[in-house]
Design brief:
The protein is of the alpha+beta class and 333 residues long. It has 7 helices and 12 strands. It is 45% helix and 22% strand.
């Protein structure tokens, strides 16, 4: 015990140990700062790449919906001889994309005199996977006053409506967005406005599917220091509201944050979500006036830095032990 104590207090050994410790500390500190800067840059590149992948995949899904909807709308435009022909045309192409909640054709008042003011045949999913037929136009549901209908009358192009809430007291009630296109008859007169509905519930499940696919992608996770990437995706509309998000992950934004996001530019921002410091990587989605963003908690980056700091500490500790053992053997103490 006394011999061991003498080794520790031996002046020569102590000076050597302090010198080595100082060199190792400086080396570890400089290396840690360089690695920290590199990891921060790598994380930004990684998550920007992830955001681009997720945005592209969701855009392709939306694009496929647009394509199938255009086929349905074209079929309606070819069969406007009678109300029955319109319903048949709507039904004939619904199989092209069963993930669409429903297809409709909202006609101009009295276009078919026998159908009166509101004729809006709707082919849709209800509580089953099969498409059903409903006539939804009525004084209670006056679609001619809806924003998407008014906008369609002023345009000849297709577009996505602003998100809205539809309520009729049935399972059809919910948050929707609609791909809309005005249809003109052979005389050039506006006949109806066709639409294809998607629900926020579907969009949430689709986004989570894309997230899980990305998290489990071995190429995207290559070189990561822990098992999988820790993030989730959200969709923000043009007014800055988070309309699609995992359950319990709503993201209220300040007016300034919403203003930056709705400028539809790619970027990143730091913010707190439910009291958790996070970073948001965002960019616009093609086809829709929305923004996709991935949310990464600061803790995700801190995990990597903590593990890196632990590695450097262990290297320093091993270095000190090796030098101490070497000095003990040289001095014979």
């Amino acid at each position: 015990m006394k011999q061991t104590f003498k080794v520790f207090v031996d002046k020569q050994t102590r000076n050597i140990l302090f010198t080595v410790l100082a060199v190792l500390f400086i080396f570890a500190f400089v290396s840690f700062m360089i690695c920290r800067h590199t990891l921060t840059a790598e994380a930004q590149i990684r998550y920007i790449g992830l955001k681009n992948v997720i945005s592209e995949k969701f855009s392709k899904t939306i694009g496929a919906m647009e394509m199938s909807a255009e086929n349905v709308f074209d079929e309606v435009g070819k069969h406007m001889d009678s109300p029955e022909a319109v319903v048949t045309a709507l039904k004939s192409k619904t199989h092209l994309n069963p993930e669409v909640r429903g297809y409709f054709a909202a006609f101009e008042p009295e276009y078919f005199p026998q159908k009166g003011t509101w004729f809006e045949p709707y082919i849709h999913h209800s509580d089953s996977s099969e498409f059903e037929y409903s006539q939804v136009g009525s004084a209670r549901h006056d679609y001619t006053k809806s924003d998407w209908y008014v906008r369609a009358k002023q345009s000849s192009d297709s577009f996505w409506s602003d998100p809205y809430y539809y309520y009729d007291g049935t399972s059809m009630s919910g948050h929707y967005a609609t791909f809309v296109k005005p249809i003109f008859d052979s005389t050039g007169r506006l006949a109806c406005v066709c639409g294809a509905d998607i629900t926020f519930d579907w969009a949430t499940k689709e986004l989570q599917r894309i997230d899980n696919e990305s998290k489990n992608d071995s190429l995207l996770n290559m070189g990561h220091l822990y098992e999988i990437l820790d993030f989730y995706s959200v969709i923000i509309d043009k007014d800055g509201y988070c309309i699609v998000h995992p359950e319990g992950k709503s993201m209220p934004l300040t007016k300034e944050q919403a203003r930056v996001l709705t400028q539809q530019r790619s970027g990143m921002m730091d913010l707190e979500i439910s009291g958790v410091p996070s970073t948001l990587y965002y960019s616009p989605i093609e086809h829709v006036d929305w923004t996709v963003a991935i949310v990464v908690t600061k803790q995700d980056m801190q995990k990597t830095l903590f593990m890196l700091g632990l590695v450097f500490f262990l290297i320093m500790l091993i270095g000190i032990i090796v030098v101490w053992v070497a000095c003990s053997r040289v001095t014979g103490k």
